[in-house]
Amino acid sequence: MAEYPFKYGNTQYNFKIERGELLHLLKPRPAVPIADVHQKCIEALENPIGTLPLRQIISPGENVLLIVSDITRAWIRTNQFLVHIINYLNGLSIPDQDISVLIALGTHRPSTEEEKKQIVGEEIYNRIAIYDHDCFDPGQLENLGTSSAGTPIQIHKRVVAADRVILTGGIVFHLFAGFGGGAKGIVPGVAGLETIQHNHRLTFYEGESAGLNPDACSNKIEGNPMRQDITEICRRVNPDFLFNAVLDAEGNFIEFVAGDFEAAWLKGCNTIRQLYGIEVKEKADLIIASAGGYPKDINLYQSVKTMDNCIFGGKEDSVILLLAECRDGLGADEFLEWFQYDTLEKMEAALKRNFTVPGYAAYKAAYVAKYRKLVLLSSLEDEVVGRLGFIPARSMEEAISLAYSLAGEQPKITLMPYGANTLPILA
């Protein structure tokens, strides 16, 4: 009988299927990691998609602003490629004093100095001016009108004032924007709170208790109202260049895409689909999933993405057994507060009044609890897990026993050992 390894924090559990039918074992497709990061960075910069090479865009004497992801996206390993972009700019006669970096915090907390150093790397930290975006400070924002969806466009003044803007980031499936990376560096990255909240409300239908808009989901770009609004706003801002990374499940660089913020990003999205979009022939009665170990299961907030991916692979009212250590607890101070609302409708109404990303993650968790039976093996206290609507387990043996008791005698089973990355796509 085969054993299947599942990561949990920094450890691992091995699982055997003792009864039932194995439908699918979902793993990322193999890819060859980039051997020479510097060389591939230069190749991407000099062979862009949908726009001219940087050397034909930027002129000496212009000031250049690079937008980078914050510490919550440390998996992108910005510090491994940013130095090559900045050195390349130096080679175009753009000195360090004409280059600055803006950390795209969205609604996240400010960066510490140590985190800034970690994000950009020690060398760049000591060479280049590094700034945090603050969506709550009106003095940092410039008004650029309104999008066709009615979103007020408030963008960090440094972005508007810069002669040239380069977006950086990483591409993954995103549970409501379709994919991460690309224009998300602008919205929510360097946008004002009002912009972010209005844009994120597009994940719901308009009207009281209207529910989630199913088009605002992972792997969907065309027809996704939130993503279309982000793209329109980014086109209004008109950044000059994009550099995005695609990584494998182990954190190795697979591809760099560069050029027009949308055209280059779309190429990276297709790579993500090829790596992580796994076709399934039918939906399961029981999904056994791991977020992928630390840091993907560092807290429950980060583990919601795995729950969302599991929804696509299971039948309605099916069972999910999720391994997520959650060593840092829930991951957002406000997360549990959203469960004061005892129905999805009440939570939706509160989100429409005051949208926050942790609130949306809480909504998604509550949504999973309503439409699936989720057994959670974690370090969270049983009382907290129960309040979220999940079934707590203290050991793998207990978790398996609970899952089987809920799924029936001969369940059809899908295994997702890389649940944060892999997305089941029904054939």
From TrEMBL:
Domain LarA-like N-terminal: from-to ranges: 8-206
Segments forming domain Lactate racemase C-terminal: 281-420
InterPro entries assigned to the protein according to its UniProt record, in alphabetical order: LarA-like, LarA-like_C, LarA-like_N, LarA_C, Ni_dep_LarA
One Pfam family it belongs to: Lar_N
Source organism of this protein record: Geosporobacter subterraneus DSM 17957
Stated name of the protein: Nickel-dependent lactate racemase
GO molecular function term, any single one: lactate racemase activity
NCBIfam families the record matches: Ni_dep_LarA
Record-linked Gene3D superfamilies: 3.40.50.11440, 3.90.226.30
